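User: I'm designing a mutation panel for EamA domain-containing protein and want to avoid disrupting the core. Could you give me a predicted structure to guide residue selection? Please restate the sequence first so the numbering is unambiguous.

Assistant: Good idea. Sequence first, for numbering, then the predicted structure tokens:
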Amino acid sequence: MQGLPFLLVILSAAAHGYWNFLFKRAYDKDAFLGLSKLAEPVIYAIPFAFAVARWGLPLDALWFAAVGTLLAVANYVCLANSYKRLDLTIAYPVSRASTIFLPFLAFLFFGERIDGVGWASVICVTAGVLVIQLRNFRPSRPTLRMDGAGWGFALAVLAAFTVALYTLWGKEAVRHIHPFIYMYCYTLASNAYFIPSLRRLERGAVRREWSLNKWRILAVATLNTLSFVLMLFALNLGKVTYVGALRQISLVVGVGLGWFMLREQVTLPRAVGVALIIVGACLTYVAR
């Protein structure tokens, strides 16, 4: 993997990890997320106007943003419903394991091939993602909710698959539309889902969340867009499999911030998971 896309993904992962750390501090996570998505197009409205003036807005390419929006919303719906049926420690890492699908989908749609080092990096990152959320290495029975583990696990896998799909779609989209313009249109369109969701919440809860966390909400809105735009630029320069795998370094950032800022315990599975992801990230740099 070349130096520039590698650096872009590292910066993207750092921004992604930090906004997820800020999101942890939310009192009402649905209100927090909805408000941050509402703020994103407002914060970036002026840069978007300059970008359109500079690179134009090809109307025939806007359908790329529409499809990207549908894939992102599908991911959110699958993940939210998986959480209702399956323990978080199972659902979350499975939903992040998009690296399982990326090598095969990238070969199928773009003809991308990765070498032996690349496969080793994907395996290390995927293993790290699956391990990092475990409480311990002792086998335990997952907590089941509502309809049981079957649907919950299936939805978590589907969530991971949609991440792989919108990563692939992003690589194709930036061939036709500037990455920032694509991201802005995609973010603006996604509010067709988030605004009704926000309106269904109790107004007092929404106002309270804004009052208590407005600066964190604005920071998350800023960093979320920045993180995705950096990834889109990297996708335009590098192989989608390596970009998707390397972006999981955001989990390492999250664990580090949780330990340093919140004094969260670094358990043995977390330490092993972090080590595996870092090894995988290093391997992507030398992979071809």
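For picking mutation sites, this is relevant: The chain has one domain: 3-286. The CA atoms of residues 42 and 188 lie 9 Å apart.
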